[in-house]
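A reminder before we start the practical. When you read a complex entry, don't treat the lines as separate problems. The point of joint prediction is that each chain is placed relative to the others, so the output describes one connected object in space. Small molecules and nucleic acid strands, if listed, are placed in the same frame. In the example below there are two entries. Take a minute to note the order of the lines before looking further.
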Amino acid sequence: MSATRAAESLLALSQQEELEDLPKDYPLSASEDEGDSDGERKHQKLLEAISSLDGRNRRKLAERSEASLRVSEFNVSSEGSGEKLVLSDLLEPVKTSSSLATVKKQLNRVKSKKTVELPLNKEEVERIHREVAFNKTSQALSKWDPVVLKNRQAEQLVFPLKKEQSAFAPIEHVLSGWKARTPLEQEIFNLLHKNKQPVTDPLLTPLEKASLKAMSLEEAKMRRAELQRARALQSYYEARARREKKIKSKKYHKVLKKGKAKKALKEFEKLQKVNPSAALEELEKIEKARMMERMSLKHQNSGKWAKSKAIMAKYDLEARQALQEQLARNKELTQKLQAASKSEEEEGGAEEEDELLVPEAVNEVQMNADGPNPWMLRNCPSDAKEAEIQKDPEQLSEPVAHKASESEGEESPLAEEEILLKELEERRSLRKKSGLNQDSEPVGRQETKDSSSQEVLSELRALSQKLNKENHQSRKQKVSSARTVLPVQREEPAEEEEPLLLQKRERAQTLEELEELGEEGCFQDKELPRPALDGQQLERNPNNQPGAPKEKTKKEQMIDLQNLLTTKSPSVKSLAIPTTIEELEDEEEKDQRQMIKEAFAGDDVIRDFLKEKREAVEASKPKDMDLTLPGWGEWGGVGLKPSAKKRHRFLIKVPEGPSRKDKNLPNVIINEKRNIHAAAHQVRVLPYPFTHHQQFERTIQTPIGSTWNTQRAFQKLTRPKVVTKPGHIIKPIKAEDVGYRSSSRSDLSVVQRNPKRLSIRHKKQLKKNSVD
Amino acid sequence: MKVKMLSRNPDNYVRETKLDLQRVPRNYDPTLHPFEVPREYMRALNATKLERVFAKPFLASLDGHRDGVNCLAKHPKSLATVLSGACDGEVRIWNLTKRKCIRAVQAHEGFVRGICTRFCGTSFFTVGDDKTVKQWKMDGPGFGEEEEPLHTILGKTVYTGIDHHWKEAVFATCGQQVDIWDEQRTNPICSMTWGFDSISSVKFNPIETFLLGSCASDRNIVLYDMRQATPLKKVILDMRTNTICWNPMEAFIFTAANEDYNLYTFDMRALDTPVMVHMDHVSAVLDVDYSPTGKEFVSASFDKSIRIFPMDKGRSREVYHTKRMQHVICVKWTSDSKYIMCGSDEMNIRLWKANASEKLGVLTSREKAAKDYNQKLKEKFQHHPHIKRIARHRHLPKSIYSQIQEQRIMREARRRKEVNRLKHSKPGSVPIVSEKKKHIVAVVK
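Here is the predicted structure of the whole assembly.
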């Protein structure tokens, strides 16, 4: 931009020089002296004036009357050339003198400055003003959008919008116009006056004020400091305790615990020496603590830790050790109990021993079918199912198992761990059971408990045997279905030992079925005979639940077999398809058609349609009217029909109506049933806000009357959309009503200023707008 | 053996006072109350019929003016007070409860062009054909005093309308330009012009009180901002707009009463398309006023009827007319939203119920419940043809009826022509213009 401008100025300069050159050739005024020049100029002017008088427009020649070629610095005149004075001309003589450098610079700067643009015309300015103002106003109005939307969508609008607030009068105002009238009131007032109870805001009696004043400042300060210290200490201790509690290191805690125990022991020993009676008390305390711990079931392997360890025990030697330790501790704790009971009763002790001798399999059964424990009942079937396959080998290895000789030889390497786990489980279940027994029975009836436990034990033993057998059997089924008969035969003698006759019978039944099923290869649901049997079983003994899960497992296996069979058949089909695909395209198409035909083999659309049409025709036909009255004129009663003659007599046949419109149209059903009388009341077009006819129907079908709705619902359903109070003036909505801050500035404030004078900022904004 | 006995506990059925309602135990089992839809339909039908039976909207006629009533004004504080200005320059103040004129003032020579009350209700302003603006006290003069205005401003041109600010001591007049006046001064604070035609009406926005709307005879509606002292925007319609009215609940909505028989509801932020075109009148619409709830508005027309339109509907829900009522020049909806007043050519002011079949007076709670239920039933079944027919049926004077028929034919013909033109021209060459856009000529920034 500046470059072009410079070029222009250069051009102008050169032109001027050309013009300046012209007078040089002019012959006149070269030899004239300075003094005459003035007079001569006047003369020249006169001549010109005269020449212009004669009316012809002569071209005015550029003329220069200067004597010298150069323009003297004292007598500058642009008169002759008729050209504008250019700054560069003036600067020319300055160029050489260096003393005027600053002036030159300033002048250069002036030269480089742009000229001010022409102001916009008035209309344009006004238009811009208007646009800016409009944008501003519409922005200001947009704050009402949410309010408007809310009011339009509101279920109910109550006018006037602004509720008149009930005036809140302070108590003294209320009291001032009130007098005590009844004796009670007077009494109360007397009391208040006696205590000089004030009614105004700081409701403090003089006594209270005095007591407030009583505490001196220093005292208060001291007290505060004390309190502060106490609080700081407390927080410090709390922080420390929290920090210590947060330490995750097990070793640290172990050491801490051990340290504590040692310390306690030392103290105890010391105490024993010094004060034996106190030591005895201490001992009792320790014993009590131990008992508490025993009761707390802390070493039961039921905790989170124990469970996690049990999982890890397979792989981690340390975990296993920890678990064993825990187990030992548990044993120790339980041992103590036994010892105590032994000391109490000889008989009980013996039984306890007996209990100890009980094989582990028994415990396992107990775990599976823990009679009195409803929670275990729920767990047992799933447990049994899950553990079944894995359990088998262990049970084989166990000495009490009947079929030990028939070991399958698939001792898993994990057997050891499994045993460990099982042991834990047993312990837990046993403990739970005994705990339950103890809970249910008062302490005095130890004997009965023992006897009952004996019974339970014997049953358990039997059950365990059964379970083992069953497990074997099921596994064998899985291995080979052909060998199913063998274990059944083998089992039967064993089962004869069982005391549970009913269950045995059922077992036999199911086994028979099983044989049948094996032959037929289809599954029959045998749930039906069960419930009655179950009831009987429950009456006999609540402990024989394992029957159910066992059968379940069996049935499940049967289902598996079935599944295998059914899933195999489609796979065969799919195998056959690829072979055909490799044929030609035609064949492929044909094949596809074939497939479609096969797929839709069941539904014959045309026949269905014909059937539908026949039905429609039948339905639309008016029926004959039978006016026969049975028993009228002849015998009537159950099983007797009116005679054919009579029926014929009283039958009114419907005359043939006009033929149907679709009689000769085989592919069409024309419904002629439209009732014009009803149609007159029906809505023909879906009304506006609804998008689907179902919506509309639903709104129509929900009744709103009080006949069908409760009073509350009725009121809610019939709430009017707009509620106005009669006699109340509804004022236009205000910004304060809806929580907006109304502008504090008066609408007048701006108008009263001179509207023509705009702020600088506003102008800037205008300019920006115009550029855009 | 347990014998079941009937137990009768008086607590369950005896009412405490004889004023209580009898307790009626109800079983809401739907099988016991079948046919709910048909029954409700019949109830709705009956409710609709009863509504038509009881539709007697006309309440009173206030007569006393000796020339046509040209303008009306509501009192901001008192529901019972109404002011009216007539074509002979007389202003009357009415008491609606007594239905009597309580004061008459000869305010101007020639027409009283505009009348408005101050927001506090202590005084009112009138403008007339005699180029004056006068401020009057609301209360009459004391004994022996002469009826004189508080202030009189002599202007240079005729003022055609006046409106008072809703909060401040400022009012606006219109004529050749819109002038904003301070009550205390005799010169306008500022005058705003845009074009050179006479402005017929100016209205302050009741919510954003610095906004003004005006309509001029050169078919345009102009919006002004008083604070910035500039016009904002101008929309030019097909025909002249007689007056506008702002919605008192929605700050940016206003409705314009147009000479082309229609009313246009605009969102002032988007003037190029009206939000709704309300058609039903068969002659020029002269005045419009919003219900204070902002849900409906009433319009007065040259066709000797007034109509009530829902704000968001294109068709009117009600039309009021009487044999004697001539061209209705002004209309107002009272501030409790219950009544409508209209002033007409034949010197009367008429008072109507806003809801034609509404029972006046105190309602018992049961009446109220029944009313609400009936209203809801009517709403629920409003689309059913019989109910719709009964609810829509209005008796109209022959002139209006025949006009409607005629205009229907005209409209149909126009539509047919348009469709034909569209059909027989190159696709896309004839634009389809919606009814809303059809009447807008231009929006000037």
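Discuss with your neighbour: The helical segments of chain B are 10-13, 36-53, 365-380, 385-392, 398-423, 435-438. What might explain this?
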